[in-house]
Amino acid sequence: MSMIQALGNVSKVRGALIFVEDPEAELAFYRDVIGLRLLYRTRTFLRFDATQGTSLSLISGGFASAEPKDYRRGGVVPELIVDNLALAIGRLDKAGVRHEEVSRTAYGSFCFLWDPEGNPLQFYESAFTRPEGDSERLPA
């Protein structure tokens, strides 16, 4: 009988964890505005289904900010794939959500936005194409 030996390799990135000041206050934003389905909830922790076996979780311990947090200095931004960026941004606008203008590339279009505590997120819609001669692509 052969045994499967674990090697300690990463097999999947399950999701992202965002530290927030008040998970309960953030619930309506992530569920109703972003459109994620709530999977699990305690007083200090929320896990949302981000589809295809991936999750986005909120946990208490962070700090709210009246101003958007600078994602270029914080280093991590959850990227949420959308099937129609224009409709997703319309939902943001209707809810009064802060966001940047849409950036368009050969690969797709994206928009940075912030939750009510100032945490950055990104909506991304793929162009479903990859340029053959991408001059910026490096070998794997």
Layout: helices, strands, pairs:
Layout: E1 15-20, H1 23-33, E2 37-41, E3 45-49, E4 55-60, H2 71-74, E5 79-81, H3 85-95, E6 103-104, E7 108-114, E8 120-126
Parallel strand pairs: 1-4, 5-8
Antiparallel strand pairs: 2-3, 3-4, 6-7, 7-8
Summarize the structure.
The protein is an alpha/beta fold.
Describe the overall structure.
There is one protein chain. This protein has 140 residues and is an alpha/beta fold. It has a single domain, classed as 2,3-Dihydroxybiphenyl 1,2-Dioxygenase, domain 1 (Roll). The protein has three helices and eight strands, in the order βαβββαβαβββ. Strand 6 and strand 7 (108-114) form a beta hairpin. The model has no long low-confidence stretch (mean pLDDT 86).
Which properties best describe this structure?
140 residues, alpha/beta, 2,3-Dihydroxybiphenyl 1,2-Dioxygenase, domain 1, four-stranded mixed sheet, 3 helices, 8 strands
Tally of individual domains: 1
Tally of contiguous helical segments: 3
Biggest sheet record: 4 strands, mixed
Q: Using the alpha-carbon principal axes, give the shape.
A: globular
In the CATH classification, which architecture applies?
Roll
Question: Which radius of gyration do the C-alpha atoms yield?
Answer: 17 Å
Question: Which stretches of 5+ consecutive residues score pLDDT under 50?
Answer: none
| Oligomeric organization of the protein chains | single chain
Strand content: 25-35%
Mean pLDDT metric: 86
How many distinct beta strands? 8
Q: Gap between N and C termini, in Å?
A: 36 Å
**What's the name of the CATH homologous superfamily?**
2,3-Dihydroxybiphenyl 1,2-Dioxygenase, domain 1
Report the top-level CATH class.
Alpha Beta
Kindly name the structural category: alpha/beta
Q: Helices and strands, in N-to-C order?
A: EHEEEHEHEEE
For the largest beta sheet, what order do the strands appear in spatially?
Answer: 1-4-3-2
CATH topology: 2,3-Dihydroxybiphenyl 1,2-Dioxygenase, domain 1
**Amount of helix:** 10-25%
